[in-house]
Amino acid sequence: MNALVTGATGFIGSHLVRRLVREGAQVSVLMRSSADPWRLRDIMPRLNCLQGDLSSLTSLAGEIKRAKPEVIYHLGWQGASSHQFQNDPAQVFANLPGSLELVQLAAECGCRAWIGMGSVLEYGNYPVPVTEEQAPRPVTLYGAAKFAVGLLAQKLCAGYGIRSAWFRLFWAYGPGDDTARMIPYLIGALLKGERPALTPGEQKWDYLFIDDVVEALWRAAAHPGVQGVYNLGSGAANPLREVVERIRDFIDPSLPLGFGELPYRPDQIMHLQADISRLRKAMNWEPAVEIQNGLRRTVEWFRLNRNRYV
Ligand SMILES: NC(=O)c1ccc[n+]([C@@H]2O[C@H](COP(=O)([O-])OP(=O)(O)OC[C@H]3O[C@@H](n4cnc5c(N)ncnc54)[C@H](OP(=O)(O)O)[C@@H]3O)[C@@H](O)[C@H]2O)c1
Question: From ligand 1's centre to the CA of 9, what distance in Å?
Fold first, then answer.
């Protein structure tokens, strides 16, 4: 397979690129000149690096066409990892035009599949396991921009005769995650012996280990019947308090936790859980890594790489 990956230097993209390389794929990656490719350092010689930005894809059109990707994975997204930017207008202006231009380029390259990464935050606040049929009610610009890109990209792909899949990813976690996210922040603080400040922790979220995320992305390219919107989660909702306590117990059960020291956000989502029936059926996919095991592996990785993180 010949694939192009945007967001390759990020948490999820780097795991996907490693998997593609392992499977023998030819992989081109879109990389900003400012990017630090530390997650890909050892496999860089095996990648075709296209230096550019989502906002300057036109100047890369020739290189992308020469790379002839059969599959495009679109994971690149400005402001993906921090809550700080969730209502920044850049969510729209930095991400929408480039994402849609990428679909047009896919058509010009004769690409057969366009696979994009959406988000649970397209849904907004739903108290039950959410199915893909439920109407998105995003409460942030991030969620609205993801929804808009997913919808428009699928319509464009249909017009161009390209198969498209849009994954509404719930929360991914695992080795190499960005420290702006809750789990890496928590691990980092606890490894330093600090008492992390936390909300009361009554939220229930659906966490999926990175290997399971990558497995679904890999299968989406291989299964010609995979098309449309898919929830990508574990299907289980874990009380945040339990997740936090498990992580603390892996590091040092005697460490104190500052539950209730932070208020909930005004737009706090309290319970999100994926209904994953559609994904299971489409590609015979199942979450394989149980949360206890996934958290243990994540803590272990951060412990071994503490020089970078802590
Ligand atoms: N992690 C999750 O739990 C989660 C949940 C739902 C959805 N998602 C989605 O999954 C995708 C990957 O997320 P992640 O966790 O891997 O995020 P991440 O670690 O922050 O990675 C984001 C990637 O996008 C690239 N990027 C940002 N702005 C860009 C631009 N203007 N042009 C080109 N590339 C740009 C970054 O490149 P640099 O290295 O140059 O910064 C990086 O490679 C995103 O679309 C995100 O919205 C993630």
Answer: 8
Burial class (CB in 10 A: 0-12, 13-18, 19+), 281: exposed
Q: Is 57 in the pocket of ligand 1 (CB under 6 A)?
A: no
Is the pTM higher than 0.70? The answer reads yes
What are the tens digits of pLDDT across the range 261-279? Answer: 999 988 788 888 999 999 9
Q: Do 73 and 197 fall within a single domain?
A: no
Q: Are 85 and 121 found together in one domain? A: yes
Say if CB 124 and CB 146 are below 8 A apart.
no
Measured by CA distance, the residue closest to atom 46 of ligand 1 is: 80
Distance 291 CA to ligand 1 centre (A): 23
Each residue's pLDDT tens digit, 31-54: 999 999 999 999 999 999 999 999
Could you tell me if residue 17 is inside a domain?
A: yes
What residue numbers bound the domain in which 158 lies? 2-173+207-236
In short, whether 122's Cβ falls inside 6 Å of ligand 1 is no
CATH number at residue 189: 3.90.25.10
As a whole number of angstroms, the distance between CA 20 and CA 27 comes to 7
Res. 309: pLDDT tops 70: no
Atom of ligand 1 nearest to the CA of 12: 16
